[in-house]
Specification:
With 367 residues, the chain is an alpha+beta fold. 58% of the residues lie in helices and 10% in strands. The protein has 13 helices and eight strands. The strands form two sheets. Strands 1, 2, 3, 4, 5 and 6 form a six-stranded mixed beta sheet that branches. α12 (328-345) packs across α13. The radius of gyration is 37 Å and the shape is elongated. This is RelA/SpoT domain-containing protein. InterPro entries: NT_sf, RelA_SpoT.
Length: 367
């Protein structure tokens, strides 16, 4: 066994006995913290995390031992060697949309700290901006990499011993993640030599498709947001409609005041007939009442209501009784605007219903 093999064995032993359990706690904390914040901010995303396996760590260290520059990492203790491995603990945040990547970065900066020994900006790197990727039109890798540690406010209780640990974060869209994984497993883990041109073309085509797919997902979520907003609006409108006489009377009193055209009003008399008319016309919502019963229309309705009362009196008829100081005023205002529609709506309703009787008198008087 070579000196490097022996050193690698020592590092693995130290990792398994001293590091794995604590790093497992770290990734669980990081995952829970991220999922909580993403949910609170309404960002659609999935979080996965892991602690590097001993087998994977061994493979990395073997590669180091074959690199002249990285061999120097083995000069320290196992703890020092492991401190140079940035991805012992790692988490991946996969957003539904590409545009949410920056929002996630902002969240991460607000809930974590930069680990000791890293740049103050979390060692943030947008990989697609790297010259190696930017100058290769077939490299579609898209991800933001960051290094984080537990914020000092969270270093308490069970998490007090995580102060010097670090976790690598990768933020990417779900579709970009698909390409990243397939490309990595195909190109870097290939055991059968160089890829064929057909394989490279397929990977390139998949990269373009994922970018198109990101746009489609964004459009889909936007359309869903519009639909849900309209559904909420419709629900709010429906829930605000008048189906109760008392609520309608209270609204009329608060909206129009105790007097209309300087005449005291009784909003609790004739309200049943008014509600029937409003429901028939689809005007039984506060907004509809406000729109259709303007001060001008109520002046005309008062004149017409008094004229109907005189018409009935002239013909020695006591029914229906009509008063411009009650909700009859609104019934008549609605009839003036929508006589034909109300006649159609009430065509199968018995004439002894008071609102129908008022409609009939109006039609009789006005021809």
């Amino acid at each position: 066994m070579s000196g490097f093999d022996e050193k690698i064995g020592e590092v693995i032993d130290f990792f398994e006995s001293k590091e794995i359990d604590r790093l497992g706690k770290l990734v669980r904390f990081v995952t829970a913290k991220l999922e909580q914040e993403l949910s609170q901010k309404g960002i659609l995303a999935r979080v996965s995390s892991r602690v590097k396996s001993s087998q994977s760590l061994r493979g990395k260290l073997i590669k180091w031992s074959k690199d002249a520059e990285k061999k120097r990492k083995f000069e320290g203790s196992p703890e020092v060697v492991l401190s140079g491995v940035s991805d012992l603990a790692a988490a991946r945040i996969m957003t539904y949309t590409e545009q949410d990547r920056e929002a996630v970065v902002g969240i991460i900066k607000s809930i974590f700290s930069t680990p000791q020994g890293y740049s103050v900006d979390f060692d943030l790197e947008r990989k697609e901006e790297h010259i190696r990727i930017r100058n290769n039109p077939r490299n579609h890798y898209r991800a933001t990499h960051m290094m984080v540690s537990v914020h000092e406010n969270d270093l308490q209780g069970d998490f007090a011993n995580l102060k010097f640990d670090k976790c690598e974060l990768q933020i990417t869209s779900l579709l970009a993640h698909v390409w990243n994984e397939i490309e990595h497993d195909t190109v870097y883990k290939s055991l059968s030599g160089e890829l064929s041109e057909a394989e490279r073309d397929a990977i390139d085509s998949l990269g373009h498709l994922t970018k198109t797919g990101d746009n489609i997902i964004q459009s889909l979520l936007h359309s869903r947001e519009i639909r849900e907003r309209q559904e909420r609006l419709n629900y709010d409108i429906e829930s605000d409609k008048f189906y109760d006489e008392f609520n309608l009377s209270q609204f009329l009193e608060s909206h129009f005041g105790p007097k209309i055209n300087n005449v005291p009003m009784d909003y609790y008399s004739g309200v049943s007939e008014l509600l029937s008319v409003l429901v028939a016309l689809g005007w039984n919502h506060p907004n509809e009442v406000s729109i259709h019963f303007s001060p001008y229309s109520l002046i005309n309705a008062r004149n017409e209501t008094m004229a109907l009362a005189r018409f009935l009196n002239k013909n020695n008829r006591t029914r229906p009784s009509i008063s411009a100081c009650t909700c009859d005023l609104f019934v008549v205002a609605a009839i003036i605007k929508k006589k034909i529609e109300l006649q159609n709506k009430f065509s199968d309703t018995h004439r002894n219903k008071r609102e129908v009787a008022i409609l009939s008198v109006f039609a009789e008087k006005n021809g």
